[in-house]
Amino acid sequence: MAEAIVAENLVKIYPNNKKALNSFSLTVPRGTVYSLLGKNGAGKTTFTKIIATILKPTSGEASVFGFDLKKQSHEIRRRVSIVPQESRPFSLQTPYEHILMFLIARGWSLSDARKRSREVLERLELTEYQNQICSTLSGGLKQRVVIAMASAAEPDLLLLDEPTIGLDPVARLMIWDFIRELVEQGTTIFLTTHYMDEAENLSDRVTIMDRGMKVLEGTPSELKRHLGETTSVTVTGRIGAEELAGFGKYYQNGSASRVFTSESRARELADYCMSKQLAVTLRPVTLEDLFIYLLGEAND
Fold first, then answer.
1. What is the extent of the structural domain holding 30?
2. For residue 206, which of 97, 283, 287 has the smallest C-alpha distance?
3. In terms of domains, do 85 and 132 share one?
4. How far is CA 296 from CA 26, 39, 61, 63, 249, in A?
5. Cα 268 from Cα 249, distance rounded (Å)
6. Residue 249 lies in a domain
7. Are 105 and 51 in contact (CB under 8 A)?
8. What's the mean per-residue pLDDT of the chain?
9. Is beta strand 5-13 parallel, antiparallel or unpaired with respect to 19-28?
10. How far apart are CA 179 and CA 187, in angstroms?
11. Exposure check for the chain: N or C terminus, fewer CB within 10 A?
């Protein structure tokens, strides 16, 4: 059975000669949540749009469920839905109209489309807003409408490009649960996000990219082990780099410092910081720590 996505040596060069993807490769297994992480401009959205057949690569090969990206784009579009980055619904249509029209465009019968529209609106807690025109909805509600529309057709692959931007914490958790339900029903989720906790909680596998190239790939647990330390210490206040260097790998940005170290050394650092009346917090390392270590130019 073909993988959900196979990309090999993809290159994308825009007309201004910006190289957004540089021999980028990855494989996404079916029935998983796969996250792509990177700084702004790393190439995440470019890759997502290529897989959705919105953009064409400059070179390289890719397939979706075994269908060639260049030769069988129509077959891919039948199986894929996308929530583009910072997408918005049409202002003068209602949430119900958005979902209904999308399903009909995807080939659903009117009766099935009506039933499915009501189901998705209820699941994403949009029923009370279903007949309001979208221009009257908050930004977070508009984002939920777009997610509802893209997921309603029960695609084999759902591409989510920073889907929870603008959502409050309660709405984010609801979307996380919804994503897990979709995977249980057989949908493959490809996610880009700047929320490291989102990637860590949802993902089966993660790729971190920078400047169009893959930096690291693995499960969230494997990636965190790559850091080589177990504890993250955040120090708020002025402290010298030479003071931090003896405790482990560290990253400084102004008056904020983060040190990656062992649990015992973390407690020593905490005691030292408190003696200098600096605010300090300790916790287990996260994907955010690894991201900062790899892409924030941390020091050893």
1. 5-224
2. 287
3. yes
4. 23, 10, 31, 33, 12
5. 15
6. yes
7. no
8. 93
9. antiparallel
10. 9
11. N
Helical residues (DSSP H) of the chain, grouped into ranges: 44-51, 73-79, 95-105, 110-123, 139-152, 169-184, 196-202, 220-226, 241-245, 263-275, 287-295
Examine the pLDDT at 300 and tell me if it is beyond 70.
Answer: no
- In a shared domain, residues 189 and 97: yes
Q: Pull the structure tokens for residue 238.
A: 């002025």
Q: CB within 8 A of 25, min separation 6: which ones?
A: 7, 8, 9, 10, 214
Q: Please, which contacts does 108-115 make with residues 24 or more away whose CB atoms are closer than 8 Å?
A: 108/153
Pair 121, 141 in one domain: yes
Whole-structure pTM value: 0.92
Residue length, the chain? Answer: 300
Q: Which amino acid is at 61?
A: E
Which segments of 19-138 does DSSP mark as H helices, in order? Answer: 44-51, 73-79, 95-105, 110-123
| Amino acid at position 236, single letter | T
DSSP for 100-115 reads HHHHHHTT--HHHHHH
Residues 83, 88, 94, 95, CA torsion sign? positive
Shared-domain flag, residues 207 and 62? yes
Decide if 129 contacts 173 (C-beta within 8 A): no
Rounded Cα distance, 152 and 113, in Å: 9
Rounded Cα distance, 265 and 159, in Å? 42
Give the type of residue at 216: L
Q: Does one domain contain both 89 and 143?
A: yes
- Regarding whether 249 and 210 lie in a shared domain, the answer is no
* Residue at 228: amino acid letter: G
> At 205, is the secondary structure helix, strand, or coil?
strand
Nearest to 137, CA basis, from 126, 148, 150, 122 = 126
